[in-house]
Design goal:
The chain is elongated, with a radius of gyration of 26 Å. Strand 1, helix 1 and strand 2 form a beta-alpha-beta unit. The chain contains 10 helices and 7 strands. It folds into 2 domains: about 230 residues, Spore Coat Polysaccharide Biosynthesis Protein SpsA, Chain A (Alpha-Beta Complex), CATH 3.90.550.10; about 70 residues. The protein has a 7-stranded mixed beta sheet with strand order 3-2-1-4-6-5-7, with helices on both faces. The structure holds uridine-5'-diphosphate and magnesium ion (MG). Magnesium ion (MG) binds next to loops.
Length: about 325
């Protein structure tokens, strides 16, 4: 690596109906870029890349005005609202061939912009992915904190392991993004997928603030949808749970069968009770196991259709000496 070539940073920011907050936060991001340039951490042609996610308000006009103001601002506009994850992905894929590092962040000023210094520092120390992790959630309401924390716990239990309290505030190198581009799946859950890319990664901690203006676009319903997408796009554990349940019910059924037979032969039962109980329990258990087994195959097909890369090459021997 050459010492004197500073990395070019793109800050990627998805925006949906953010006309009230964008004029406040855009200059903050620009100031951060200028500070990092002055501190000789990033190159002077670093920029902010806004992704307008089909906003219905004046967001895109504001972005266009900003882009005229300074070469540090740029933007892309999606054809329609595709949701936060898709908007962010669009921005990252746009940025990956133009810069050396990206930092993704929301445009509402909730995530501490100053954590970027540390992120870039970690990049200079060799990390390809740096996760921004919330150290506290005091500014969130109790309900938001409770639902968000349950979210990570349920996700983990369901086999979608994510970095705890990390949303989408993250530094990713262009190199990691180029590998990430090979993850062709349509159901995306970025924070659960980046750990799958590998490479050296680390976390930096920051405090999350309240939104500077406007309202959250992540009500409980969207959060549940995100959790469901996260689980189903990362794991087949729900299918395993069905199989396990089937086995458990079958065991219970077996015990009940023994009990019913004993009761039948000792003669203190209504006629027909033993046979119907046995049939119901037995079939219930068998059916669940059968569903689980079918599910396992569907799970395999599901994983196959994702056509994810089976490996990612981290380094090659001739990388170092720059052989042609
Ligand atoms: N966002 C987006 N498309 C959407 C919803 C949200 O691009 O359909 C953006 C939004 O502009 C913001 C970020 O995603 O920059 C996070 O949204 P928000 O702050 O509303 O969520 P919260 O922080 O409350 O979870
Ligand atoms: Mg927010």
């Amino acid at each position: 690596m050459t010492e004197n070539k500073l990395p070019k940073l793109y800050i990627v920011i998805p925006c949906y109906n953010e006309e009230s907050v964008l004029p406040i936060t855009a200059p903050m991001f620009r100031k951060k870029i200028e500070e990092l340039v002055a501190a000789e951490q990033i190159s002077a042609d670093s920029r902010i890349l806004f992704v307008n996610d089909g906003s219905k308000d004046r967001t895109w006009e504001i972005i266009q005005q900003l882009a005229k103001q300074s070469r540090h601002y740029s933007g892309i506009c999606l054809s329609r609202n595709r949701g936060h994850q898709n908007a962010l992905l669009a921005g990252l894929m746009e940025a990956k061939d133009q810069c050396d590092i990206t930092i993704s962040i929301d445009c509402d000023g909730q995530d501490d912009i100053n954590a970027m210094d540390q992120m870039v520092q970690q990049y200079h120390e060799g990390a390809e992915i740096v996760y921004g992790v919330r150290s506290k959630r005091e500014t969130d309401t109790f309900f938001k904190r409770f639902t968000a924390e349950s979210f990570y716990k349920v996700m983990k239990w369901m086999g979608a392991d994510t970095v705890y309290n990390h949303a989408d505030y993250r530094l990713v190198s262009a190199r990691a993004l180029k590998e990430f581009a090979n993850f062709k799946e349509v159901n995306i859950f970025l924070r659960g997928m980046f750990p799958l890319v590998g490479f050296k990664s680390t976390s930096v901690y920051y405090e999350r603030h309240e939104r500077l203006a406007g309202e959250s676009h992540y009500p409980l319903s969207k959060m549940l949808a995100l959790a469901f997408d996260g689980i189903t796009s990362l794991s087949v554990k729900p299918i395993r749970i069905i199989t396990t349940l089937g086995v458990c019910i079958s065991i219970v059924a077996f015990l009940l069968i023994v009990y019913a037979l004993v009761a039948y032969f000792t003669g203190n039962v209504v006629s027909g009770w033993a046979s119907s109980l046995i049939a119901t329990c037995f079939l219930g258990g068998i059916q669940l196991i059968a569903l689980g087994v079918i599910g396992e195959y569907i799970g395999k097909i599901y994983m196959e259709t994702k056509a994810r890369p089976r490996f990612i090459i981290g380094e090659r021997t001739d990388d170092e000496n720059g052989a042609e």
